[in-house]
Specification:
The protein is mainly alpha-helical. The protein has two helices and no strands. Keywords: Membrane, Transmembrane, Transmembrane helix.
Length: 56
């Protein structure tokens, strides 16, 4: 029974490490945007949100 809990613990640690890797990669991608890129994307999203939807 002790062997099972060891593997469960190791799987949990591996999951936490994998999650940390994904968060670190996402942060690197997010930091690569310039302020002008972010501003342009926000303006584009605002324009899309204000546009009347054709499905209604």
């Amino acid at each position: 029974m002790k062997g099972i809990w060891k593997w469960v613990g190791l799987a949990g640690v591996a999951g936490v490490v994998a999650g940390g890797v994904l968060v670190a990669r996402d942060q690197r991608v997010r930091k690569s945007y310039t302020p002008e890129d972010i501003r342009a994307r926000l303006h584009q999203r605002l324009a899309e949100a204000e546009r009347p939807d054709a499905t209604e």
